[in-house]
Design a protein that fits this description.
The complex is a heterodimer of chains A (about 300) and B (about 150).
Chain A lengths: L11 H16 L12 E6 L5 H12 L3 E5 L13 H8 L5 E6 L4 H8 L4 E6 L5 H15 L5 E6 L6 H10 L5 E6 L8 H9 L5 E4 L2 H5 L4 E4 L10 H7 L7 H4 L7 E3 L20 H19 L6
Parallel strand pairs in A: 1-2, 1-3, 3-4, 5-6, 5-8, 6-7, 8-9
Chain B lengths: L12 E9 L3 H7 L8 E10 L3 E9 L8 H6 L4 E6 L2 E6 L6 E3 L20 E6 L4 E4 L10
Classes of the chains: A alpha/beta (about 300), B mainly beta (about 150).
Chain lengths: ~300, ~150
């Protein structure tokens, strides 16, 4: 039985297969409409989420399966003090596969140690969010037709942004990738990722503070939100939250085929005035998120559709 | 005080741990869980050492298979481990960094699941032997030795 805790649990070849399957699902949805008939997905969400929970649920419903679950710690037995280990043991009796989000880092690993069903880590605090990374990879590969030979700008909160950390881990495995890390000094990418991931893999990168300065060099711009819940101090959050705002004037400096991705939800960091720009693919990204989760559910349940 | 020396008699079976950093022997006593063993332990603190200036030495009289020495590699891999059988040194064991250590150190990351989950073992995994770096198995936060 396999779980997905970290995007690196999958080899490059396995990711390719998964993305191929997701593209096939996109092209021929009817073929997969009953692939999970009789199967149940349980969504165990100990903290609020719109996209991640609903996209997992939509993925299972699109496959003809059904869903059950809880959407906050208060509405589960965690409020009574139940451990993650006990909850997953119990839930394993009710469903065939679980998607779990928890505010504590490593919670999904605890779950998979006690689970009798495959566990998808749907985000564990600031640690990992592998289905977002798979969504990002599917979006990039589908829209750019490649995952190599690119200069990628990562902009915003690079310190606490788990999506950015996971994406870097995943992309350094492809050839000729260069990163431009765009952040204020206080939200720079942590040193251990620069050293242990970028330097160790000889991946070139530069760190800049100005988005205007970097945007013209990019094939892809990955914007992030400064997340209030990652700060211990309200004052620091207020100072950082509107540091970058991507608008029409900045997009004029970008290449004609540069893509803009964002894990969503966005707040102020992307102006709504660029939503209609064909380079802005963040809502398409949300759609790709459903296809990739459908592919993941099929893969973890070992269901083959001919 | 003159040049008085402290004599601790030899042991028939067990371990002599030499070149322990001065003052660390009580930590080792705790980590080897010697308080839970009914065996004879001699701890010599601040012994003179040509190499180290001062050092601690421990003599532990017990069957050699009852103590897991892996943890010593994590505490200080410069410790010399002599294994004694029938009053003789039968092996000088080289210490290696253990691949995993369980319930020896605690994860200090307040966001880690180990901070709230009941009876969850504190597991650290060796992630970089060159840098002697250990990370929490769950949240992957690096453990910083003082």
């Amino acid at each position: 039985m396999r779980h997905l805790l970290n995007p690196l649990d999958l080899s490059v070849e396995e990711i390719d297969e998964l993305l191929d399957l997701a593209n096939d699902i996109e092209a021929y949805p009817d073929k997969y409409a009953h692939a999970c008939a009789g199967k149940k997905l349980v969504t165990m969400f100990y903290e609020p989420s719109t996209r991640t929970r609903l996209s997992h649920e939509a993925a299972m419903l699109n496959l003809g399966g059904s869903v059950l679950g809880f959407s906050s710690a208060e509405s589960s037995s965690a409020a009574k003090g139940e451990s993650v280990a006990d909850t997953i043991r119990t839930v394993s009796c009710y469903a065939d596969i679980a998607a779990m989000r928890h505010p504590k880092e490593g919670a999904a690993m605890v779950a998979c140690q006690h689970s009798r069903i495959p566990v998808i880590n749907a985000g564990d605090g600031g640690h990992q969010h592998p289905t977002q990374t798979l969504t990002d990879l599917l979006t990039i590969r589908s829209e750019k037709k490649r995952l190599n030979n690119m200069t990628i700008g990562l902009c915003g909160d690079l310190k606490f942004g788990r999506t950015v950390h996971s994406l870097i881990h995943a992309l350094v495995r492809y050839e000729n990738i260069k990163f431009i890390l765009i952040s204020p000094e206080e939200l720079r990418l942590p040193g251990y990722i620069r050293k242990d991931v970028l330097d160790k893999n000889n991946v070139p990168y530069e760190e800049v503070e100005s988005l205007e300065e970097a945007i013209g060099k990019l094939d892809l711009l990955y914007m992030t939100r400064v997340q209030k819940e990652r700060f211990f101090n309200e004052e620091d959050y207020v100072r950082m939250k509107d540091f970058y705002i991507l608008d029409k004037s900045k997009m004029m400096l970008a290449k004609e085929d540069m893509l803009v991705l964002h894990p969503l939800p966005r707040v102020n960091e992307i102006s709504v005035e660029i939503d209609d720009d064909p380079r802005a693919v963040y809502f398409k990204q949300a759609q790709y998120g459903v296809y990739v989760r459908m592919a993941l559910i099929l893969t973890l349940l070992d269901i083959k559709v001919s | 005080m003159g040049n008085s020396t402290l004599n601790v008699s030899s042991i028939e079976e067990g371990f002599v741990l030499d070149h322990i950093q001065a003052g660390k022997s009580m930590d080792i006593y705790k980590h080897l869980k010697l308080d839970k063993l009914d065996c004879c332990v001699a701890i010599i603190k601040n012994a003179r050492s040509n190499k180290m200036g001062k050092k601690d030495i421990m003599k532990i009289e017990c069957p050699i298979d009852v103590i897991d020495l892996d943890i010593l590699g994590f505490i200080d891999h410069n410790i010399t481990v002599n294994i004694i059988q029938q009053n003789k040194i039968v092996e000088k064991r080289e210490l290696r960094l253990p691949k995993q250590i369980v319930n020896v150190i605690k994860c200090k990351n307040p966001r880690c699941i180990t901070s709230i989950e009941q009876e969850l073992d504190q597991i650290f995994v060796l992630t970089d032997p060159e840098k002697e770096e250990y990370r929490c198995k769950y949240c992957e936060q690096r453990y910083k030795k003082k």
